[in-house]
Amino acid sequence: MITLGIETSCDETSIALLKDTQILFNGVSSQIKHHQHFGGVVPELASRKHTEIIHYLIEKALKETALNFSDIQLCASTHAPGLEGSLLIGVSVAKALTALLDIPLVGVHHLWGHLYAHFLTETPPEFPFIGLIVSGGHTMIVKVTGHYAVQILGQTRDDAAGEAFDKVARYLELGYPGGPKIEALAREGNPKAIHFPRAMKNEGYEFSFSGLKTAVIQYIQALKKTDTPLPKADICASFQKAVTDILAYKSIKACRDCAIKTLLVTGGVSANQALLADLMAQSTGTNIQVLTPPPLLCTDNAAMIAAAGYYHFKTFSRSHPDLSALPNLAIDAFI
Ligand code: KG4
Ligand code: ZN
C-alpha cells in the first residue's frame, strides 16, 4: 500500500511516501531559520511557511519516487496535538487530496507518530512496550499493549524536557532549538560540576522540569552578579545530566514495575546521546532492551506519521473524511 504522510504540527513541514512500511521519500523542510531570531516558534509565521512549501514538497515526493497522485492509496495527516493554525494546513491539504483522489484519510496523533517511528525499522518492536516520549511539547511515559492500545503512566506537570533544553539554551544565548546546542557544549563540560535538582524522583512516573530550569537560571544570575565568567560547558553538562538522569530512572522503573522488557524512546530529545548513555547504564544488568529510532526519525517527520496511519488503517479500516485539527487531544483518546 502506498501511503502519503503529512506533518505540519509545529515548525517542520514534512511529506513522506511509504510502500507499506518502507520509506520511499521522507522530506523535511525546517522553518528554524525563520523562528531562530525570535528564540522560539511564532505560530502565525509557522502556518504561513507551511502553506508556502507544502505543495512543492508533495511534487518533489512524487517526482523523486516516480509515482503519480493516482498511485497513492492512503493519506495520513497529523491532526493533533500542536499549533492549531499549523495543524490546519496539513489537515486541509489532506482533506482536499483525499476527496479528489477518493482514497481514505487517517488522522494521526503526533505522539503516536513518534512511537511509530520505531515501526519503520527492519525489525519492528513487539508489544507490549514502555514508551518514553520526549519532545519539545511533551514528556510522557506510556504502556503500549497493542496498536493504539495505550495507558499513560505519567507525564510532565509543567515544562517538557525539550522545552527545558530550549529555555536554558535561550538563557545561555546558545540559539534555537536548544537541545542539540546544549548537547554539543555539554561534551566539553563536567556533568558533576554543579548539582541541579532531580524533581519528583519518588513520585511515580510524573515529571517536573520547571524547577530545574529555574535552578539553572538562578545559578547563572548569581554568577553574573559577581562578574564570574560563566562555565557554560559545565552548566550545560550538569543541566543535561539532571534531565537525562531522571528520564532514564523513571522509564527503566516503569519497565521493571510493569515487567516489560522493551523500552522505546522517541521524540526530539531521543536524539540526545547522553540520554541514551544513561538509559544504557541504568538498564545494565536487567533484561530491558532500550530502542531509539535512527537519528533522522527522532525529530518531526512525515514518515512516522505515515507509518502510524498505515497501522491505524490496517487495524481499524476506518477513514476520517471529516477530520479536524485538535490542538489538545490526548494520546489515549481513540479516534
Ligand atoms: O519531536 P520534536 O522534533 O518536536 C516536537 O514534537 O516537539 O522535538 C523537538 C525538541 C526541541 O525541544 C529540541 O530542543 C529537542 O527536541 N531536541 C533535543 C535534541 N535534538 C532535539 N534535545 C536534546 N538533545 C538533542 N540532541
Ligand atoms: Zn514531535
| Spans of at least 5 consecutive residues with low confidence | none
> Biggest sheet: strands side by side, in what order?
3-2-1-4-5
Structural class: alpha/beta
Specify the biggest β-sheet: 5 strands, mixed
Helicity, in percent? 40-55%
Number of strands: 10
Q: Can you write the helix and strand succession as a string? A: EEEHHEHEHEEEHHHHEHEHH
Bound molecules: 5'-O-[(R)-(carboxyoxy)(hydroxy)phosphoryl]adenosine, zinc ion
User: In percent, how much strand structure appears in the residues?
Assistant: 15-25%
Overview of the structural elements:
The chain is α/β, with parallel strands linked by helices and 335 residues long. Helices cover 43% and strands 19% of the residues. It has helices at residues 32-35, 43-65, 84-101, 110-116, 161-171, 178-186, 210-225, 232-258, 273-283, 295-298, 302-316; strands at 2-7, 12-19, 22-30, 74-80, 105-109, 129-134, 139-146, 149-155, 262-266, 289-291. The strands form two sheets. It has a five-stranded mixed β-sheet, with helices on both faces. Strand 6 and strand 7 form a beta hairpin. Helix 5 (161-171) packs parallel to helix 7 (210-225), helix 6 crosses helix 8 and helix 8 (232-258) packs across helix 9. The two termini are 22 Å apart. The model has no long low-confidence stretch (mean pLDDT 96). It binds 5'-O-[(R)-(carboxyoxy)(hydroxy)phosphoryl]adenosine (KG4) and zinc ion. Zinc ion (ZN) binds at residues 110, 114, 135, 267-268, 300. 5'-O-[(R)-(carboxyoxy)(hydroxy)phosphoryl]adenosine binds at residues 10, 135-137, 162-163, 165-166, 177-180, 183, 267-269, 271-272, 299-300.
